[in-house]
Amino acid sequence: MKNLILTTAALALTSSMAFAESHSVVRMGTEGAYAPWNFINDAGEVDGFERELGDELCARAELTCEWVTNDWDSIIPNLVSGNYDTIIAGMSITPERDEIIDFTQEYTPADPTAFVAMTEDLDPANSVIAAQTGTIQAGYIADQGWTLVEFATPEETIAAVRAGEADAVFADQSYLAGAIEGQDDLIMLEQTVALGGGVGMGLRESDTELREKFDAAIQSMKDDGSLNELISKWEVASLFE
Amino acid sequence: MMECLDTIADYGLRSIGIGERLLPRENFTLCQQFTLIGSGMLWNIYFGVLSLLAGFFLATAVALGKAARNPVLRKSSEWFIFIFRGSPLFIQFFFAYFLFLALKGQYPFFDPFTAAWLGALLVLFLNTSAYTGEIFYGALQSIPKGDIEAADAYGLSGWSRFRRVIWPTMLRLAWPAYTNEAIFLFHSTTLVYFSGFPAWQQKGDALYYASYFADKTFNPFVPYPILAGYFILLTLVIITLMGRIGARLNRHLPQEAKRTRFRFRPQLIR
Amino acid sequence: MGFYWSFLTVLTLLAITAPLALIFGFGGAIAARSTIAPLSWFGKGYIAIVRGVPDIAFFLFFVIALDQGIEYLRHKIKCPDWPDTIRQGNDFIVCQAAKMPLGNAPQWVHETYGYFIAVFTFAIVFGAFAGNVLFGAMRAVPKPQIETAEAYGMTRRQSFWRIIVPQMWVYALPGLGNLWMVLIKATPLLFLLGVEDIVYWARELGGTKTPRFTDYPHGDWRVWYFLVLLVFYLAFTRLSEIVLDRVMRRLTAGQATSGGEAQRRAAA
Fold it and tell me: Which residue in the set B214, B264, B268 is minimally distant from C139, CB to CB?
């Protein structure tokens, strides 16, 4: 808890007084169950790529930030009803989401989607593919006409492959890489699919000023190369050119 | 209106794999939400009706077992009821799925058990048997002594005494509580895909489709109330049907007595 | 650590929800009995509708609705001359003073608030069930008792509070006891309401941990964590059964029921 309030920026510097009043603390909403993007560490705190990125962005934008976790299923409804101010949870920018909320510019390029299976020779069309319920991956498998089996959590999708319920898991490459590390029985296949856009921070559509601040902060991290450093440190995606 | 009929034709049976293969992706209409969630209700009804019917018989056996003098029979019935009534259904689903997976690895016989249509049905069946068994046991204990004495006086004994006197009286006494159990059972069917068993080819129950729409439209205030509406209807149907059966069970009683019997909902709602 | 705390979370939830649900149920039952038609419809509607909906479905949308409802009311009171509309497109925006809790409140205030919203939601759901039980119990009090009270010149109100309410508990207790058991078993749904309960932690801690993100890597241990939960629930159920049994025996004493009669005879 003591680390939650990280930056005590001088609020007097913020341009508009109304803004300062409404955002004296910016609440950062994340899921806390998607390593290496965001997860709960041994001390029970939010940790991961997005924790480090978010703290740095807040420092650059001179904002006081606080971390909040929320279930993935209701992460957007809770943002629009004002329970926190941003979503920073590995959320891909998609046109559907963009209709409901606003996104900053992307802070990682699109993460390719990959397969993890027990054997190298997988033919997706004739296999059972596991995915998390309601993800864009699940939608893609359905689109392709492959046999889809959906599980409530990503953990269960991997367990299903090991138990022989499914032939492969279809999920973000960075998640799979972390999940199968140190486990010899599962293999990541070469084949990848580009799904969705890059990952950005989600904000309420009415919160233009806050979005501009984060946009500028992300731009400055892109410009001085510190964003690429973070990305390669956590191995979450490919680097920006 | 015509459009909506098309939607019903396309998605009305989607939950059992008939009709359009792909779920709607954009421009979600209210009609689509009503149709697909309604289509999912088929699974809730399937799970509820079958486990209730099968559970009825096991419950009678368990209730008799718990009332039996034989200690083995009594203890095993007591433990069966305790385990299934004492733990959340959610955890029962988890363990059942895990167990079936392990068994499947050993014996091919268990192959279909990891699918919801059989595995979850089995869990719901055992679960409702335990709850109903306890209700029936309570009713068995409160059968008026006079009824049994009268049966003895008529020279009834053994099976015929059970079938003609004890069993009908037990049902009559247990009926209001059993109605509640039936309602709860249908409600618990929503847990099947939500946290227990995987959904294949996007074939799921009403809650599965409701959360699909909530996820895609980012608006929980439409699909979940639709789901709630369907369940309120279903509950009304259950209450009506069970009320009819209950009235039939009580048809020999004088009208006034019937009312007093039914006035109080006793003992064990779940 | 969170795992151990979460047991406490669940127990406090039960401790607060049970009396609150009883109050809601009592209110619902009184409303349903009322001679004023709209009030009676309200009571009956509350009991019938909330009972008719699966609790998961209710939890999935009610918490956000409740939260927005509270903020909407506070907004109307605190910022009467707010120029913008509250719903701007998809956004739900109220003035800062109306935020619940205030936007800059520390995280623990937010968590506590979320927790109480969850408790309140549980209480509404189980209040409907309790209302159903109490409504039945009130009607189960033998008619002659009430007729006698009337003969003594008591008003409807007096006979309700002095005759029905003290006597109804013995009829209500089996149903309420069962409701308590159901409530215990509904607590795993708490994680749906955004509270970090035992199921949340069992999943979080039991899930596979690879060496990259933790000092204590392990495989899929969820089975063991869930086994702990299973034992916890079974033990808690057993304990509740014993306590309820005692209470029932005490309440039955001196009542005009077959149980009370049996006790009297055994003592004599």
Answer: B264
The answer to the question of residue B11 being in a domain is: no
With 90 as the cut, is the pLDDT of residue A218 above it? Answer: yes
Asked whether residue A94 falls in the same domain as residue A139, the answer is: no
pLDDT value for C259: 63
Q: Which of A24, A42, A159 has the CB atom closest to C214's CB atom?
A: A42
C182 touches chain B (CB under 8 A): yes
Structure confidence by residue, pLDDT tens digits, A104-144: 998 988 878 889 998 888 888 888 999 988 788 888 898 88
Is C123:C20 a contact under the CB 8 Å cutoff? yes
Which CATH number is A69's domain given? 3.40.190.10
C32–chain A nearest CA distance, Å: 34
Task: Report the domain count for chain A.
Answer: 2
Say yes or no for a CB contact (<8 Å) between B95 and C230.
Answer: yes
From C122's Cα to the closest Cα of chain B, the distance in A is 16
Using CA coordinates, name the residue in chain B closest to C53.
B228
CB C205 within 8 A of CB C225: yes
- Report the distance separating Cα A195 and Cα A192, nearest Å: 9
Judged by CB atoms closer than 8 Å, whether chains meet at C90 and A41 is answered as no
Q: Assess if residue B194 is contained within a domain.
A: yes
Closest-CA residue of A relative to C111 is A68
For CA atoms B69, B70, B73, B76, give the dihedral sign.
positive
- pTM exceeds 0.90 for this model: no
C20-44 b/e (C-beta count within 10 Å ≥ 16 → b): bbbebbbbbbbbbbeeeeeeeeebb
Query: Are C139 and B85 within 8 A, CB to CB?
Result: no
Supply the angle between the helices C107-140 and C2-33 in degrees, to the nearest 10: 40
Do A182 and A201 belong to one domain? Answer: no
Interchain pair C99, A70: CB under 8 A? no
Would you tell me which residues 108-147 of chain A have a C-beta closer than 8 angstroms to some C-beta of chain C? Answer: none
Q: By CA distance, what is A151's nearest residue in B?
A: B198
Q: Which CATH number fits domain C2-195: 3.50.50.60, 3.90.380.10, 1.10.3720.10, 3.40.50.300?
A: 1.10.3720.10
Domain that holds residue B193: 37-263
Put simply, the answer to whether B263 touches C90 (Cβ < 8 Å) is no
For chain C, give every domain's residue range.
2-195
The token duo for A169 is 């898991």
B-chain CB neighbours of C61 within 8 Å are 214, 220-221, 224-225
Same domain, residue pair A150 and A84? no
**Sign of the torsion formed by the C-alpha atoms of B100, B53, B92 and A154:** positive
Based on the domain organization, do A91 and A31 belong to the same domain? Answer: yes
B 91-120 residues inside an 8 A Cβ radius of A: 101, 104-105, 114
* Nearest chain C CA: its distance from B184 CA (Å): 8
Nearest CA-CA partner of A107 in A76, A86, A80:
A86
Please report, for residues B48, B202, B221, the alpha-carbon distance to residue C51 in angstroms, rounded to integers and kept in the order given.
17, 29, 19
In a domain, residue B185? The reply is yes
The contact set of C with A (CB < 8 A) is 1-2, 60, 64, 67-68, 71, 88-94, 96, 99, 103-104, 106-108, 110, 191-192, 194, 196, 203-204, 207-208, 210-217, 220, 222
Nearest-angstrom CA–CA distance, C117 and C97: 19
Q: Is C189 within 8 Å of chain B by CB? A: yes
∠ CA A115-A121-A126, nearest 5°, is 75
- Read off the pLDDT of residues B172-190 as tens digits, 9 standing for 90 and up: 888 888 988 899 899 999 9
Whether residue B252 is contained in a domain is answered as: yes
Residue A45 maps to a domain: yes
Model ipTM value: 0.84
What is the residue range of A129's domain? 113-193
| Residues forming beta bridges with residue A71, ordered by sequence position | none
